[in-house]
Design brief:
Length: 149
């Protein structure tokens, strides 16, 4: 049994139950100087990582992570996940936006205390996000067709 298995299982549960109220517990799972990188952000430190998630809850409706696969090997973990959310619809009911799903994976590097030192998310922003936006999506799909021709 890997000594990090339990900590990663707790982290998966934390992400699947993530809410604005639980963000204050991020330091239980991340080292104080942890680094986080995804297609839009590159930050260091728990407060900066927490700010990304605070912004996520402010801009999106009903965001949630569903982790499908988790592999822990030595001090590394890989999570395959779906991120489900609705775009906030201005001037409409909170449920007005269609459910969106981004599929991605996270590479985690754990410290001796089993807290995350490095969190790197991989997902295709063009396919998983831009193509779903009304005007930009049309342009992205056109560019994709032209590049494949």
């Amino acid at each position: 049994m890997n000594p990090h298995d339990h900590a990663v299982a707790e982290l998966v549960l934390f992400y699947e139950q993530l809410s604005p109220a639980s963000l204050g517990q991020l330091g239980r799972h991340y080292a104080p100087d942890a680094r986080f990188k995804d297609p839009f952000h590159e930050v260091q430190g728990v407060p900066a990582i927490e700010a990304i998630f605070t912004q996520m809850f402010a801009r999106l409706q009903q965001p949630r992570f569903v982790v499908g696969t988790c592999v822990v090997q030595g001090e590394q973990a890989f999570l395959l996940w779906d991120f489900e959310f609705r775009f906030a619809a201005r001037g409409q009911a909170a449920s007005a936006g269609a459910l969106q799903t981004i599929r991605g994976c996270s590479h985690l590097l754990l410290g001796p205390d089993s807290r995350v030192r490095l969190h790197r998310d991989y997902w295709d922003a063009a396919e998983e996000l831009y193509e779903k936006l009304p005007l930009l999506g049309t342009l992205m799909r056109w560019l994709k067709r032209r590049a494949g021709a």
